[in-house]
Each structure stands twice: as C-alpha cells, then as structure tokens.
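Side project, low priority. Logging it here so it doesn't get lost.
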Amino acid sequence: MRPLAALLPLLAALLLEQTAGSPVLGPRQEASINSVNLVFNAECPGERQRDIISAWQDAVKLAQNVGKIDFDDWAAWEFFGPPQLLNKDDERNKKDYRQNIQAIFDNVKSSGQGWSLTPEDWKVRINVNCGPKNQDIDAECRGNSNTRAHTGNSKSLDGSGDQHYEDPSATMNLVICNSFFAYDGLDKAIEKNKGLDDILQKFDLRYYRNRADIILHEMMHSNRLTYLPNDKRHITDHKMLITVCEREKDNKELCDKKQKLVDAYGPENVKILARTVADSTASYVTTNANNFALYALSKYVQKEIGGGCGLSVTTNGTECGVLEEDFEKISHGEGDFGTTEEGDVPTVNDLEWTSDEQYPSGYIKQLKERMAMDQDAPAPIPSGPPLKCNGLGSNKYVSQSTLANNITMFCSDAVNQGVQDNGTVSISRNYNHGANDEVDISIGWPSGMETPFNEKECNNQMNSILDNCGGNGPSNPRGYNGGGTVTVGENVVYHITPVSARNPLPNEPFGGCDFRDKFAFKSFWVWGAGWESWDYGSRNGGLYEELKKCNQGRQVEDWKFSYGLGSDQRE
C-alpha cells in the first residue's frame, strides 16, 4: 500500500490524457430566463426564507461556474460519461446530448432571484413552501428523513392541482424539508474541508454536500427551467437495481452476492450510472438530476481547493471498490429505467459496464491509482459518510475531558427520557452555557419510530465523534474537539456542536496576573487560556481555591469571573 500522502498530487492535479479531435458542438438553445421571483408560503419563517434565498443564489453560482463545458475534462467523464457516448447514444436521431447539458446549465445560471424593483410579470414565479422549525410541511418530508426537498410542476400559477405537468410553461413548486437546514451553506462547506490535512476527506465530494447543491438538484426537476433545453425530456431521479459482491476484508476471494435497489444519487451512485449500459448512458445521465448537480459541485470544489475532488472512486465491475463491493450488474431494459416503484425496475441482466477502452488511458490509470490508495478508507454509507467532523477551522471547539463528561450525562438523560423533546424530532441538550466549552448535543430520528438507541449505543456513537474529530497532532497537541455528526443507517443522527467562538487553538496553557495595592484595598487579576473552560473558576475548586491559598486561606472578596477573547489569545 502506498502512503496516503502520495494521493495528494494525484488528486490535486488530475492530469489526465485528453482525447484528441473533439467534435465541434452544433448550435444550442439560448437561455430563456432572466430572473425568478421566489414566492414563499405564509408558514415559512423569515429566517428560513433568507436561508433558502441564499441557497438558491449559491445554486445559481454553481451553474454559472460551469461556464463552457469541456467534455474532455475528468469531471465530465465521471458524471456524464465519455464524450463519444454522449454523441452516439441515439443512433436513430444521431443526437448529440452535449448540447442539452450545456443548454440546461445556461438556462439555470440565469435563474437568479430578481431585483426587487423589477415588475413581477418580468420574473418567473417559483413557489417555495417550508414549515416552522422542527415541523415538516408535508407527508413526503415527514415520511423519509433522507428527503431534503422535493419539487412538483403544476399548470396553475399558485401551485395547486396536478404536480406532473410536463410543459415548459409549468410552475415550479419547491418544498423544503426540515432536514435541508441541517446542511451547511456552500461557502461554509468549502471552508470546513479545503484546509484539512486528511486528504481522503479533503478530496471526497461527499463531504462537500450543502444546501446549494440540494437546491440545484431540485432546479433540475423544474420543467420551466430544464424541459425545453433538454428536448422536452423531464429530469427525474433514477433508481438502479444492482448486484453487488460484498467481500471480506481478510479474504478477498470470498464474495457474498446481494441485490440492491439504490438511488442514482450521491457521488458514487451517479458515477456508476455514468459508467454503465453504454447504449443508453447519455439518455440516463441527462435525465438524472444528481448527475447535473454533482458535476457542478465538483467543478466548483475543484476551483476552490485547487485540485480535483476525485473521491469516491468508481472503477469497472471486476475490481473491488471503496465500499468493499463489486458493482457487477446494472439494471437495464426496454422500460422506464428511472421508476420510483420498486416493482417496475427492469430486471438485472448481463453485466453492461462501459469498457475502459471508451476512456483515455490516463484517466483509467488515475482511477486505479486512486482506488489502490483508498482501499483502507473506512467504508461510508452510500448516501453520505457516517462520520462527518466539523473541523477546527471555525475556532469552535471544546476540551476532550469536558466533552466526555457531557456525553455521559447526555446519554443517561436521553435514555431516561426515552421520547423526543416536545414538538421536535430529537432529544437535544445544551451544556456549559456561556462558557468557552459550551456545547449542544443531540440525537435525531423520525417521528413514529421506536427509540433507536440504548445508553451503550448512545455512548458508542457520541464517543466516535469524541475520538475522531479532534486528534493530538502538531496543530492540536491538547486534543481539542470540534464536534461532528454520525449518521446510523439512514435515519438516526448524532450531533455534537461546540457553540462558543474562541481564539485559535493554544499549544499549551498560559496565564498572567497583575496586582494593585491602594492603601487597605488590594486587588489582583488573573487571566490565561488552555485551562478548564467550563466551570467559571469554580468556587468549589480550581482557580478560586488557588486564590484562597494566596490570601492565607481567607475568602476572596468581590470575586468575579468571566470568559472572553483577548488580543493576546487569553480567554
């Protein structure tokens, strides 16, 4: 196994051999939208409206960053397939689907929120619905914790009636679920990961999922935005029925074959979609929303971090992948590939994996090198990494010992309570209020589900954040913890979130003092950082007791203690 550090230049550069003589694109449809007007329902609070508008504008920014697409670029190969397949997919019409992809992004990138003084009739109306905090607005949001948002298309302007109106004049009706607001904004997601030393996380697109790419995904479902530039084809969410070979880590020869129905959603699965059933690759990827959204996110991340976000890796079905699985078969048939009904998914037939010969040799070489170096990475849940650390870049962190005690208290309290907090879908507690070690700890799970943890399980999952989201490296010798999130299965989410903004991490404790003697009145100040940061000096121990010793054991009069940020890094 080559060292992980060697992965950095591979991912940062992604210098792949380019195919020569790319065919020239023919004329494409021009963008037809100048701006939109987001119209919110009355129940959507103002703060949430602002978050949604910000995410919409960031989604437009993702589309704008795409610019003129280079279909001989590594990201295009991974999310849309080889350019020759996009050009030769439909032999009956000799269709070049690259025109559709370009036209869709051109239309979406001009769909920003319109100027307030622009007449309403000049802007395209988008209906946006959300509910109050901790209260999902509809059954689709409540019934699936993985649903962040969903979109309908109506003939009516107010969004009423049938939601499957396939016409370029359709009104987009966007519903935002509560789970959407648990994601970071675009800039914060970039900032959390771009400076990481952990290159397996830094270059893994799964860690950059954010509100903007969720909105961009939903924009792809809008017939007003994408139906006409996609030659009157609605963009949906495809499903794939695959057979996987799950291998034992200790014995790669053993293979347990299982069938799985999976969404063509998330970096790994959309790359699988782009590498399979070569006869129809183009029609599939150009009617699957997440291929568009993640291609745009990948290009934006590449620009921001200075290198390609090439993980997770998808190679052909004969090799064992990051998830210790071989994607050996893919559903394919004459029927609708993108059904939402499990019974209608076409049956699995022979392996139809796009051969390596369809790709530049340099690209395949890069894939295999990345795969070899990534073999020992922890196996993530396909819908997203089970453990996501917040990082320490925001200067919000807590001490390990304090957090360990808080976790023990929380899990005991949560198990004793046994049900979600009133009016919410979680149990949440705040500890060390007002102190530097202030932290929020919570467990969330869908309403109606039996309590999915016991005290041992709670401690195990919370301690995985404690053990893995800090570290004792050169930049953090005292092992402070930035918190994070653990997702168990698809429904149960454990959160640890430090609250207080602090100075940069101290390498060691330090302090200072000052003394004033005015006649009979004596006063002194003590300050520092890197000490206990939750007990306010504690009259029952700690700093207060040490000061009593200096005062010959007598009580300290006019005792005051506060936390704050000083220019000399004191807290």
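Brief comment: Residues 1-31, 315-351, 373-385 have pLDDT under 50 and may be disordered.
Revisit when time allows.
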